[in-house]
Structure formats: C-alpha cells, structure tokens
Design brief:
elongated, Rossmann fold, seven-stranded antiparallel sheet, six-stranded mixed sheet, 20% strand
C-alpha cells in the first residue's frame, strides 16, 4: 500500500497542507519548527486511529488544533493498493472481493475523515473504493449495482480496516534513554536490546530471517559485527566484545532505526522516519541513505531531515520544502528545482536549506559578490549564490531556472548590461518580478573593482607567474574606459594560468577587497541588500 495524496487541515501548524504524486521515498526538508514533524505525526494519527466509521481518540487537547481553532481536523488520503493488495489479504478475502468487484479490483482507496473535537470524536466523511462509495457522512452505503448488501458491506469495511489501521509506523529522532554506563547515556533502551537478544536466540524461521536482515544491514552500515553474549547484544571490535549500548551515537541510532524498520514492521507498513542522520557522520549518513533506498523498494518511506548530505545522496526521491510563514506551514514540491540545480552543477543540499537564492551569470561574479558582502558587513549565511552559465552556455534556460526556483524559495537575478533585453523578456513573461532582477549599469561586475584592489591583484598575478606585467598600463586603460578588467589582454601568458583570466583576476580581487581603502559603489550595496532582504 502507498499513499499517493495526503491532505490535512487544521492540525497544529498545518492550516491547509496538501501532498500529491507521492513516491516510495519522500523527503521533507526545512528549518526547525517549520511543521515537518507535524506532517509525519498527522499521518500517524490518521492511520493509528482509523475506523471505517466513527471512532474515539483519547489524550487530545486544544494544542492539536491550528491556533486553538474549533474547526474539525480534516484528513484526506488516497491510497494505492494495486500490487500490494494481494499481499495484505488472505486468500479467502481476496476471493470474496473478487466476487464483489470482479477480477480487476479497484486500485485506489480514498478516505476522508475528520477529528471533530478535543474529546476525540471522529467522523468518516467518505470512503470510496475505486468509484464505489462505501461510507458517506459516517453511514455505510449499500450499492445495488455491485450487489453489496449489509453483510457484504460489513465484511468489506472490516477488510479495509485491516488494510489501513496501524499500517504506518513513526520512527522518532533518537533521544537519550535512561540507563547505560556511568559516564554515558545510551540511545538504545533496555526493551529494544532485550527484544533483539530474544530475536537472535529464536529458532523460528521468521525470527531468524528478520534478525538476519537486521544483522546484515547493521554490518553494512557500521562495518561492525554483532556478537551476542551475556544475554545482551555486543559489538565485535578488534577481537573484543563491547556492549552495543556503549557504542557511539551514530551506531546506536542506526540500530534503533533498523530495529523499527526491519524487525518491528513488515513490508506492508509505511514508515515515517524523523531525522535519520542524527548522531551520524557524513559517511554513515550516505550509507544509511542507501539502506533507506533499499527499504523504499518494498514500501513507502517518509523522511524529515536537516542533512544536506542526505538530500544530495538520495536518488529518485520526492523532495518537499516545508516552511512556516504567514502563521502556518507551507509546503512546496522541490523536485523540479532540485533537478535544475544538479544541471547547474550546484548541490541541492546547499541550496534548499537557504532562505533565498541569488542567480548570477558566472562563478567569478559569485566570488566577487561574496567579497563585497564581507566588505559591507552583509550577512550571506542564509543565501545561496548560484552561477547559471557554465563555460559560457546555459545548460537550462533562464526562465526554466527562475520558474522552478520561485515555486520553492525566494529568488533574485543579477545580469550584465548585454542581457538587458533578456531581463525585460523575463519580467514580461512573469518568470520573475521586476523588483527581483538587477542589470549592472556599468556592464558587468568587474567594472566595479576598486582601482587600488585591481592594481594589487594584477601585481600579485604578475609576481606569482613571473609575468612581468605592465600593471600601470593596464590600470590606466581601465581607468580611461578602454577595457574592463576582464578584457585585459596579457597575450599568450594566459595559457599559463591555472584557470581563466576572469576567474584568476576575480580570486585575487576578492582577497584584497576587505582591506581596500575604497568603499564599494552604492549600486553594489543596494543590489546586495535587495538580493538578500526578506522581501526579495
């Protein structure tokens, strides 16, 4: 079974959230307190408390509702059953459904439920299997066309309950557990360790298979071998056993996750995993990602993460950017933008966790803008600057870049004077608002290099490569407006540079900008402020 769409209204920060076209592996990324965990917990509430009609949930309070609202919490889930349906049913139930629906069983099950109040009362708004309505307004519906009488309908609803209820397992972030060594708090609670020990000692074929899968995955991820002894799990290292509870946090966290995914749940259970990267170094995170991808081949997995490593490593997943703005959680599908970033040679994990993105034309411009920002004291820690031209050519069109980006994160575009007409087209075509684009008035960013910094940069290049450049001549040509710094012609000497003249010069200019006696131009300052401000 797989969730293809999930909608929830009025649950905690989720005023109105909709996820659609969900795949087997889904990543929810974003800042702390953005609502990622609320989405996974909403799914858990829907599945764990499912009943075909009515139902009651205890332990609720007003904090489960969006800002104390009295409106019902509404859930809508469309479940894909094709392929997994037979696995979730007994042969008898399969035969029974065949007599009702015919040989081709409906592949989708759409369920709409509402949690009415803090007393925990539920209402089933509708259950529709394929095109057949089975429940409406909390009342089972007979269907003469399919010859569904009351006993038949009751049985169908019992089958649906078995297919849906508790078929979602939430794996929380690893937290410190009580107990452990005098100087170390374990992440593995005693119950988990005891159950793993019991499983390892069992001679049941099913238990042996589950433990074998757990043991193999654990060894693949950590490079350690489990070696039970003294009624508890040990890790074999350098021919000596160590208690698993005394291993590093990453190792224990991995064991917790694998235990829940491979031992406590089966292939028909959807997994919601909170921050699987917790306590793990980048290498372990990458291996863990591969293990999660393997798990997602057989079942659906949802992950919340703050790890750029995980975002960059996952292949074929569906990525959602979750953000808290305007008083509620907002979600935006990031797959298209993620693909564009990869085309541009940028790491999605670096960009998708930024507050905004500034697109520039070339790598040299990125280097210089960052240096100007340092000089001006403008904070770029929350901003990603992405060059869109590679070797002078665009791998994707600018309008594609901007449209995909603006669906996910605020953007700003900076172009050279030669792209003035293109900038106007982008604004006219509504690819980007006019206040989110800037065209350099003096041609390109190298026209704004301070003279003293340019002189020092040219001298540094001349000294490093033993070029004996006529620095004063080149500086005078720039001051006279005959050439821009990037157009300085040093002849065949350019072949000796480790990178292009433009990049070599930009790197040297960036080094000297902070100690330059010249203040950056007003245009540089205003452009950087506009590009990095929240309203951009």
């Amino acid at each position: 079974m797989k969730i293809s769409t999930f909608k929830v209204d009025n649950y905690r920060s989720l005023r109105q959230v909709s996820l659609d076209k969900l795949g087997n592996l889904n990543l929810l990324i974003g800042k702390n307190s953005g609502g990622k965990s609320n989405i996974l917990e909403a799914m858990s509430l829907f599945f764990s408390e499912f009943e075909p009609v009515k139902g009651t949930t205890t332990g609720l309070n007003e904090y489960f509702w969006y800002k104390g609202s009295t409106k019902p919490i509404a859930f809508e889930a469309t479940l894909e059953l094709e392929g997994d349906l037979v696995q979730g049913l007994s042969a008898e139930d399969q035969t029974f459904l065949g007599t009702v629906f015919g040989e081709a069983l409906p592949p989708t099950l759409k369920i709409t439920r509402s949690l009415l109040n803090a007393q925990g009362a539920w209402k089933t708004d509708s259950i529709v299997w394929g095109t057949t309505t089975l429940v409406k307004d909390d009342v089972p519906q007979l269907s003469p066309n399919l010859k569904i009488d009351s006993p038949t309908l009751d049985r169908i609803l019992r089958i649906i309950s078995a297919l849906v209820k508790n078929k979602y397992r939430l794996v929380g972030t690893s937290r410190d557990a009580k107990g452990g060594d005098r100087f170390r708090t374990t992440l593995l609670d005693e119950n988990t360790q005891s159950r793993l020990w019991t499983l390892q000692q069992s001679t049941s074929a099913q238990d042996e298979e589950r433990y074998g899968e757990f043991e193999g995955a654990f060894s693949d991820l950590t490079s350690f071998r489990l070696d039970p002894a003294q009624a508890r799990l040990m890790v074999k290292k350098d021919n000596k056993r160590f208690p698993l509870g005394l291993e590093g946090g990453g190792t224990q966290g991995t064991a917790n996750l694998l235990f829940t995914a491979l031992v406590e749940s089966d292939d028909s259970t959807i997994l919601g995993i909170e921050e699987p990267e917790s306590h793990g170094h980048p290498g372990l995170q990458r291996r863990l990602c591969r293990e999660i991808e393997k798990i997602a081949l057989d079942r659906q997995v949802f992950i919340t993460t703050h790890s750029p490593v995980l975002v960059d490593t996952v292949q074929g997943g569906t990525t959602w950017l979750v953000d808290y703005s305007d008083g509620q959680t907002q979600v935006a599908r990031a797959d298209e933008f993620e693909g564009v970033l990869r085309d541009l040679g940028a790491r999605p994990g670096d960009v998708l966790f930024s507050d905004r993105v500034v697109f520039v034309e070339r790598r040299s411009e990125k280097i210089i803008l960052e240096a100007f920002a340092r000089k001006l004291g403008i904070d770029l820690s929350h901003v990603s600057i992405i060059p869109v031209r590679v070797m002078g050519n665009l791998p994707v069109t600018l309008d594609t870049v901007l449209v995909s980006a603006n669906k996910v994160v605020p953007t700003f575009l900076i172009l050279g004077t030669e792209a003035t007409a293109q900038a106007a087209q982008l604004v006219d075509g509504k690819s980007i608002p006019k206040d989110q684009i800037h065209v350099w008035k003096s041609g390109s960013i190298d026209a704004y290099y301070p003279v003293d910094t340019l002189r020092e940069a040219l001298q540094a290049i001349s000294t490093r490569y033993s070029f004996n450049l006529n620095v004063n001549k080149y500086v005078q040509e720039v001051q006279d407006g005959k050439v821009h710094p990037n157009e300085i012609d040093i002849g065949d000497k350019v072949k000796q540079l480790e990178s292009s003249w433009e990049m070599t010069l930009a790197v040297e200019v960036a080094k000297g900008l902070e100690k330059s006696q010249s203040e950056p131009s007003t245009e540089i300052r205003d452009t950087l402020l506009a590009a990095t401000s929240p309203s951009a």
